[in-house]
Design brief:
The chain is mostly helical. The protein is 66% helix and 1% strand. The longest helix has 32 residues.
Length: 467
């Protein structure tokens, strides 16, 4: 009995019981015809399990860790419409993305059941990986050499990055937001001296994080970095603003904050400001800067962001019509050779991206004009079949916990954290795996800089704040 308590927390034990109860419910559901009352029951059941997941995870491991942040984005991107429907604010079964219809009751039942099943196993994986969050300190040593080189490369890349962002912004303002996706940006001619500036800026910032900087240095360099990213945000992509901010919160909370208690008033204020900023940015990219921000703003935000639910729902509804005849969608980010130069007929025929394939299937004209429905890790899991859908759901929760350990023990994982952490958090609207091309380029940069820095010593006047 003692060994059981050593290995399985009380929350994990409760979670296993909940999975067992839901398993029995699924078996009984085989003999029950889905109706409106049962659909509402599943909605409330999902809401209760979701709240249980947030509360139990926060009780065990704090509020601003990677897994709890993922739960919040899961609620925004996947569950938002379902929960709004409980208050009569939105019809979640309305498939309003191009093909305007209502999901049949049997599809609604399957969607909700699979969402509950996935959440139960994802949370079990996270609870069983709780022990990896016990260590808050970074185990690898501070590196002045890495810090000096990263700051030097970062500052050298700032001017070129700023110029490239301004050039891109001018193009977007003249041709519209969809120019981000229709291939227009890939054909821009930049000044030769800006070549590689954005990549060097981002890669050197990742290297800076891996040096184990002091709190003071982290705040100064991060402020410069995120000010540059705010220029990029004006192109219209809201994730470009929120993912770096969320990463900053995760990093600061994980490695610098002494008081791990959450100030709920501040958190709600930050969330409210973020929602308003998101909607302002949306209207800015539409060219409607004089939009009326009424009391419906929050409803609009959650209903619009919750559209990612349709990626999963469409896969279930069109099962048998929209068939994957190539490699699993989940492997798309691991391609080393495919490059994106715009949403074209040629690209959609060769890609294994769920988001591109599904958008083209739903509306080829919208796709070719640069529009998209996005992707979702849930859709990628569903493409693998029921058994792997459950297995990967469990693995997702466990890996988020395990990464919290790796990033504290190994400098290389801290270096990659700027890519991996936002990828986990953005999975509900994106892919399960991060882009392997970006990982390889980062690792190549890491190896080259470390090799050079061992043989070339920087002069003392190079920018270096007191520790």
């Amino acid at each position: 009995m003692n060994s059981w308590h050593l290995n399985v927390s009380k929350f994990a034990f409760i979670q296993i019981c909940l999975i067992g109860i839901f398993g029995v419910q699924l078996l009984l559901g085989l003999f029950i015809e889905a109706d409106d009352s049962y659909i509402h029951f599943l909605q409330y059941e999902l809401a209760v399990i979701y709240l249980w997941s947030i509360v139990s995870a926060s009780k065990e491991s704090g509020f601003l860790n990677l897994y709890v942040m993922f739960l919040f984005t899961l609620g925004i991107f996947i569950f938002a419409r379902i929960f709004l429907d409980l208050f009569g604010l939105f019809e979640w079964e309305w498939a309003d993305k191009w093909n305007d219809f209502y999901l049949p009751l049997n599809i609604q039942c399957k969607v909700l059941s699979l969402l509950i099943l996935s959440l139960l196993f994802t949370h079990l994986g996270a609870l069983l990986g709780k022990s990896y969050l016990k260590e808050r300190t970074i185990r690898f040593p501070y590196s002045e050499r890495i810090e000096k080189w990263s700051i030097l490369l970062f500052l050298l890349a700032v001017p070129g990055t700023f110029v490239k962002y301004i050039i891109q912004l001018k193009v977007i303002l003249s041709q519209g937001y969809l120019a981000v996706y229709d291939g227009t940006l890939s054909h821009i001619t930049y000044p030769i001296w800006t070549t590689g500036a954005i990549s060097i800026m981002e890669f050197s910032y990742c290297l800076f994080l891996s040096s184990k900087p002091s709190k003071k240095k982290f705040l100064i360099i991060s402020t410069i970095f995120f000010m540059l990213r705010m220029v990029d945000v004006l192109k219209g992509g809201r994730s470009r603003m929120f993912l770096p901010v969320i990463f900053l919160m995760w990093y600061y909370y994980s490695f610098y904050a002494k008081n791990v208690r959450v100030n709920w008033r501040k958190m709600f204020l930050i969330a409210a400001v973020g929602i308003v900023a998101s909607q302002v940015l949306l209207e800015f990219r539409r060219g409607d800067v004089a939009a009326d921000y009424s009391s419906d703003l929050f409803l609009l935000f959650f209903s619009q962001q919750g559209v990612s639910l349709l990626v999963f729902a469409y896969l279930i509804y069109y099962d048998g019509i929209f068939v994957n005849t190539g490699i699993p969608y989940i492997l798309y980010p691991l391609s080393l050779f495919q490059t994106f130069e715009g949403q074209t007929f040629e690209f959609v025929q060769t890609t294994s991206s769920l988001g591109h394939k599904l958008t083209y299937f739903l509306s080829s004209s919208a796709y070719l004009n640069g529009a998209g429905i996005g992707s979702s890790y849930l859709g990628e899991f569903y493409d693998l079949g029921l058994v792997l859908f459950v297995l990967f759901s469990f693995l997702a929760g466990f890996l988020m916990r395990y990464f919290e350990r790796l990033v504290r023990h190994y400098r290389i994982f801290m270096f990659l954290s700027f890519i991996i952490v936002p990828n986990f958090i953005y999975m509900p609207r994106s892919s399960f795996f991060p882009a392997l091309q970006q990982i390889v380029m980062l690792l190549l940069f890491y190896v080259i800089v470390l090799r050079v820095s061992k043989n070339v010593r920087l002069p003392h006047f190079v920018f270096l704040l007191k520790k």
